[in-house]
Amino acid sequence: MPTRRVLFAAVTLILLASLMILPGAGPRAETSLKAGIGYDFLSQQYFLDSVISEGADTILADWSLKTNYLDDLKGMLSARHRPFGDERLDLSGRWEQTADFLRLTLSEFSRIDFSGRRLYLASEYEIRSRVRGSPSGFGDDYWRAHAQARYSQRLTDRLDWRTQVRGEYTNFTAGSATSYDHSRLSGKMGLEALFGSFSTAQVDLFVARRNVSANSDLSYTSFGIEGYLWWLIGASHLDVSGRLERKDYSAAFNEDDYMFAQLSTILRLRLGGSWMVKSEADLELLDYAAAEAVVAGYRRVRLLAMIGAERDNVSLLAGPQIEHLAQDRATLGGTEDYFETGGKIAVEVFHLDLMFLTLESTTGWRNHLDDGGFWSDFLFERLSLVGNVHLPLNLTWDIFFSAEWEWHERESDNSRLYLLSTSLTRSL
């Protein structure tokens, strides 16, 4: 273990140093180095009804069962080199270390332009290695590599044709029932239309094949079509995306095979002055080809309507939200059909080159429609914070925080979930 740790650290430092000393291809060459610390945390806590405290063991009134899935403080070092000062060639490396793990990521991106055609090439190599304790067999140690080529050609002044090929491979040092070595090859081909005022529309056909040599039942082929529309109307905009996918696993009797369809729309409409409205609609359909023992297909619909105002780079929106899930019945259980109602508040702060912060809070009630006594209705609160803030002394603070509380009619089902990922880095 010590030998592997020293070798891993030495290779990482050499590779990062190499990025820093690569010669520039001209006076516009750019080289940067960042260092910092980060913290990742994920936990879930279940509470038992205080009725369990009957008898002499009154201490059980305050008893709770808590599970921490992730609790890591890490150091980070990254380097980036752009010999031409643009996208023609971009090389980067990143090293992260916690008390238990080392992670190294090396990536390359390049762009080649010629006669109205453009070729993008990208690759990445990642290693994660445990440096303290014994591997658990759940994907502690692995290496992963992927490469991608994307080609685009201008057909007319407003229409581009493009195609993409991507290959990737993941190798686990210690395999387990949840981590298998696998490879994946995918491709897509489609058109992109450009309109005035930066509006754009895209449509692509895609196909992918994953191979898992140790368990062929997990191998699959998927194919489908996806599209995207971004339409600007003055200061307003419409965002529409959709995807239709068929996934066929290699297991017998169509096990786990499914058809998935998804459609999402976001409309942000200016009303004049600082006032605006925002609406969102999401539709998902999942249909399995054969009856499944535990999982089941479903139809889910979510609708949101908000009104608010924006002033001095700060916006505040609020409004009602509903969600409905209709689930097929699995062979070993019932359904989790529900109807959810609530309200959402969103605050966004945006200052160019200074900060971006988004805070959202959703409060509501979930009513289970066909629970068979297994599910209980509950009140919920969902809170999220996403931010990027530039500070003095070339410091940058990034944060992603998410929390969810559920208060059930059956108190033993109450739960809490916390997720935090944050970092403070300095450009050197």
Q: How are the secondary structure elements laid out?
A:
Elements: H1 2-21, E1 30-47, E2 64-82, E3 89-97, E4 101-114, E5 117-130, E6 142-156, E7 159-172, E8 182-194, E9 200-211, E10 220-233, E11 236-249, E12 258-272, E13 275-288, E14 298-311, E15 314-327, E16 338-351, E17 355-368, E18 378-391, E19 395-408, E20 415-427
Task: Give a description of the structure.
The longest helix is centred in the N-terminal third of the chain and has 20 residues, at 2-21. This protein has one helix at residues 2-21; strands spanning 30-47, 64-82, 89-97, 101-114, 117-130, 142-156, 159-172, 182-194, 200-211, 220-233, 236-249, 258-272, 275-288, 298-311, 314-327, 338-351, 355-368, 378-391, 395-408, 415-427. The protein contains 1 helix and 20 strands. With 428 residues, it is mostly beta strands. The chain has a 20-stranded antiparallel barrel. The chain is 5% helix and 66% strand. Strand 2 (64-82) and strand 3 (89-97) form a beta hairpin. It is globular and about 70 Å long.
